[in-house]
Amino acid sequence: MSQLKHIKKIASLVLIFSLVLFLVSCTKSTKVPYGDIDDSTYLTLGNNITVTEKELYDAYRKQGATTLASMFDEILFEEQIELVQKLLGDSALTDADEAVFTREELREELNNLILESMFSTTDVETIKLFGSLRTQVAVERFVDSVFTLNNSINREELFEELLDHVNTSLETEEDFKFFEFDELLGNYELRLAQKIYAKEILLVDVDRDEEDNTDFIKELDVINYYKNNVRNRHDVDVFIFNFRHVSEATAVLRDLVIEHEDGTIEKYGSVKADASGNWYFIPDIRTPEVFDNLSHPDYTHVKDILNNLDIAFDTPISDRDFYRFYSSYTPNSNRLPSAGLPDIRIPAEDILEFFIVAYNMVNGNRPVDLEFYRENGTLQYLDGSEFNTLYNYEDLTALGTSLRSYIYDSLYVDEEDKKAYSSLRASGNLRYLIFKLEDHAETDLIAEEKDEDDNDQWIEDLTEENLANIAEWRTEIAESRLTTSYVSRKVNELLEDTEIDIYDNILRSFYEDAYGYEGTTKNNDGNVIATINGTDISPRDLFNQMDKAFGVSLALDLATNKYLLSTKDDHLSSDDIKGFEKDFKDLINAFSNDEFAQAGYPSSVGRAKFLLSVFGAENNQEAIELGFIIPELRSNFSTDYESHYDNFYEKLATLTNRHYEEYKGVTVSHLLVYFDENGDGTPDNPQEYLEKLTEARRTEILEGILELMIGNEGIYENLASDVDFSDVKGGLTLLASEVNNAGRVPLNNNTRNTWTEFAKLGINLKFEDLGSQITNTSNFITGSSTLDTVFYDRAMALHDAIINQFDEAKTGLEFLDFYPYNSLILEGNTDEEGNQEDVMNQELTTDILENVLMSDFGFHFILVTGVDAKLDFDYDGENDVNENYQFELDDKTYNIYNDDVAISASQIEYYIVGNEQESGASMPTSVSRAFTKHFTPIFDRYNTNSYMQREIFFKALDEMGVTLHKSDANAFELIREVNKRQFFDYLNERPNLEFDANYEALYGDWFEILEG
Asked: Is residue 241 in some structural domain?
C-alpha cells in the first residue's frame, strides 16, 4: 500500500505546474516521424539554455493524445463542422441545412455551452442574481481560459466586448448572441458538430423498430411521457391565500367583516365547514335576531350547546362565550326538526365572495375590490390593478406538492356534485382557502380500458390537435435522449469503425491508454504521424495545433527543468542521488511484483510502458530525473525563500502586518423583519414587494416597522422591560415568536394583541444566530457561500465603530443596532476629513430603514456579541529564562523575541529556518496564536497557491532573460499577467473594473510589496 501511495505521489509530481514537466530524450533506435520539425531554437533562457522546436515537439508527443483525438474528430466531422459554421453564420440556409437543428436552435445550443462554461449554469434568472462583481469575474475568468488556449486573440478587447454584451443581455432580457464572437466559436464547433451527427442518428433510431434498438420510441414511451410530464401539469385559475396558522383562520372565519374605505365595519357573518368540506353560516348568538329567539324550537341545538358549555343566555352573549360556542358548533344539514333547524349549505356561487372577505381581512396591504367582484364577477385589487389567479405547474409546486395535487385532483369547475372550493387546507403551520376558477386541462387522452397487454392506451377519438401534440411529445422524448453520454457513445461507435493508424510509438502509447487502439504498431519516420480513413496528419499539423495552446508555457517548463538540472551539483549530494536510485529500484521491483495492478499498472504491461505512462520516460535514467531529481530541485527552489525576493523576510513581515492591521472579526446574530406574501417560507424582496403597494400603504408599512422596533410597545421597549428574558438573544427569539404567532386579526388568546397591528401590515420576524464569526474575508465571492451584502456591510461597520472606540476585543458583548438602551454608545466611523461615513448612535428613521438596513431579504437588525482581537507578536526575551525560543545555526542566533506588537522579519526567519531543522521552531503560546491567525494565511498563500508558485518560477526566468524566437515576443509577459489575475481571483483593484475593497486592502499590493 505504501508503494501504491508512492506511485501516485510520483505521478502527481510529474504533473506539477501547468503541464507535465519533463525533459524529453528519445531512444535513438526508434523511428520517429518528425517531418520538418528540426533543431531550430524556439526559446532561449539567459545565454546558454535553449529549447529547440524538436525538444518541444517531443514534449508534445507525450501530451498530444487528446489533441490528436480532436484532430481525428475534426477530420471525421468535417462536414458537420461546415454545417455548424453555416448555421451560426448569416448566410442563406436551405431546408436540408436545418433538418436537424434550426439556426435558432443551434445558436441556443452555443449559448448554453458558453453560459455553462462561464457561469456554471444556463439559468438566466440565476445569473441575474450574481451581481455585477461576480458577473465580471466570471466573464474575465472565461476570457482568460479562451486566451490561454489561443493567445493570438486580443484578450482585452474580447473581455470588454463580452462583458458589455453579457450585461446588456441580462439587463434587457434579450437573447445572448455569442455566435457574433468569432474568437469563441472554434472552441465549440466540434462539440456542436458531434451533437448534429448524434442527433442525425437518433432521429433515425427513434423510428427504427428493431429488437436490438434501445433508442426506439414505443407508443407506450409516449404515453408514459404524457402521464408523467403533461397530464395534470396544466395551468389553472385559482383564488388561493393563506392564514398564518389555524388560530388566525378560526378568528377570521368566526367573525367575517367588511372594512369599507370610509373606515366603517360591516359584519358579514360567521362561517364553518363540516367534515365533508361544505360551508355553512353559523348562528351568531350575539345578534338580537338569534339571541331573542333562543327559546324557539328551531334553536334547540343552539341551546343544547350553550347548556353544555355552562353559558347562560338570560343576558346578552359575550364575544368570549360566542367564541366557545363557535368552537363547539358542528354544522349539520341533516338535523332532525326535533333537534333544531338543519343548517343550510352556502351555495357554491356565494362561497368565493366570503373567501374574498376573509382574504381582505388578512391582506390589508393589497385588498381585493369586493364591490367590483359583485358587479362584474372578476377579481382585481382595490387600486384597480390586476389580481393574478393564473398558476402554472411550477407555481403550484412552490406552494407544496400536497396542495398542488389537491388543486389538480380534488377541485372541479362546473361539475355537478363536485366542489370547486376547499375547506381549510393545512401546509405546515399555514392554513389555505382555495377556489378553483378555471381548469385549463385538456381532455384526458388515456383510455379507461387497458390494451391486450394490460398497458395504458390512447383514447379512440384523437383529434388532429391531439395527434400533433403526441408527435411533439415524441420529439421531446427524442431530444431528452440526446444527452452528453449519448453523443459520446455515438462518436465512439464511429471511431470503432474508423481506420486509424498512428506511426509514432510515444503518441500511440498515450493514445491507446486514453482511447483504446487497434491500428498498426509500425513506427515510421518521415512526414506522417497518423492516418484516419486515408487522411494523413503531419508532425507540423500536431505541432501547430498544440503550439497555440501550450507552446510558450511548455517551452518555459522545459527551460526551467534544464536550468534546474544545471544546478543539480549545487543542491544535491551523491548520497541524494543514490537515494533516488534506490527509491526507483524499489519502485520497479514493486511493479514487477504486480503491486501497482490496482492502480492500473499490472506488470504485464511491461517496464517500457510503465516508465512511459508514469514518468513520461523512455529509460531508467530519464525516469529518475523526471520522477525524483527534478521534483526535488523544484521543491528546493520553491523553499529557497531568500532567493525569491530581496529582503524576503521583511517583505513577508509587511504582508503579515497588513493582514494584522486590516483584520476584522465580529460575531453577530440578527433580527430579520421580512415579508412573505405567498407564505412559501422564503422572504420576499422588500423593494419589489413595496413597489406593488400604494405610496400611502408603503409609508404606513415603513412607519409600522419603526413602531414595531422602537415604539412605546415595540420590540426594543419589551426587550428592555421584560425581566423574563435571560439575555438579548433569548428576548429577541421569544419576541419574534410572539409577533409571528399573532394574527392579522385579534385571536382572543394569550397572544398580545399589540402585535396584531404589525401582523396586519404583513410583517414577519426571524431571529438567527449565525454561529460562526464574520471576518473581512467572509464575503469574497470566490468562497463557497456569501452573506447578503447589506447585512455584511452593516456588520463590518458596527465592528469598525466598536473597535475604533475601544481598540480592543470585546467578548460577551451585547450591542443591538439602534437599540436605545445599549450600554455601549457608538460614535460611528469617519473618513479622512472627519465626516461620519455611517449611521451610528442615531434614531431609527424610515430613510435609514430603506437605505441602510434593507437588503433583498428584508430589514436586518444586527446584534453584535463580540469583536475579535488582533493577536500581538510581542514577546520579551527576558521571559525566556530557559532559552526555549532561540537557537544557533552557522554562527547566527535566531529567536522569537520582539518588542513590537507587529510581527518582525527576525521572527519570520526564526519560524521558517527553525522549522527546517529537525527540532522545529518552538514558540510561546501567545506568539504561536498570533502566527496562526495573521502569518499562516499569508505564508500559505505564498507557499500553496499554485499561481504564486508559478510566479516564483516566472520571476526567476524573467531575471535570466526569456527570448521567444517563434512566438509573439510578448507571449511570456501575457501569460504572466494571466497568472497574476488568477492569483488575485480577479478581485483586486484595476482601472475601470469593479473590485472587492476588503480583498484589495488585504492583498491588492501583494506583488508591489514583494517586488519593491
From this structure: no
Both 707 and 726 in a single domain? yes
**Residue 325: which residues within 8 A CB-CB, separation 6 or more?**
285, 302, 305, 306, 309, 311, 317
Same domain, residue pair 836 and 740: yes
CB contact at 8 A, 127 and 135: yes
Same domain? 656 vs 670: no
Q: Is 607 helix (H, G, I), strand (E, B) or coil?
A: helix
> Which carries the bigger pLDDT value, residue 804 or residue 374?
374
Range of the domain at 918: 647-663+870-944
DSSP H helical ranges for 881-996: 905-916, 925-930, 936-944, 946-960, 971-983
Give the length of the chain: 1012
What the block records as the C-alpha cell of 575 is 548520497
Are 798 and 652 part of one and the same domain? Answer: no
Residue 986, judged by CB atoms within 10 A of its CB (0-12, 13-18, 19+), counts as buried
CB–CB of 868/906 below 8 Å?
no
Give me the sign of the Cα torsion angle 985, 988, 991, 994.
positive
List the one residue out of 786, 763, 634 whose CA is nearest residue 701.
763
Give the integer Cα–Cα distance in Å for 294 and 788.
61
Are 995 and 988 within 8 A, CB to CB? yes
Average pLDDT estimate for 899-908: 97
Q: Mean per-residue pLDDT for 569-595?
A: 94
Whether residue 627 lies inside any domain: the answer is no
Q: Are residues 205 and 226 in the same domain?
A: no
Query: 879 and 839 in one domain?
Result: no
758 falls within a domain:
yes
Which residues contact residue 702 at a Cβ distance below 8 angstroms, ignoring those fewer than 6 apart?
Answer: 690, 846, 849, 850
Alpha helices in 529-572 (DSSP H): 539-566, 568-571
pTM of the model: 0.87
- Provide the grid cell at 502: 498512428
**Long-range pairs of 383-386 with CB within 8 A, sequence gap ≥ 24:** 383/694, 385/692
Distance CA 115, CA 131 (A): 16
In a domain, 285, yes or no: no
439-477: pLDDT as tens digits = 998 889 999 999 999 999 999 999 999 999 999 999 999
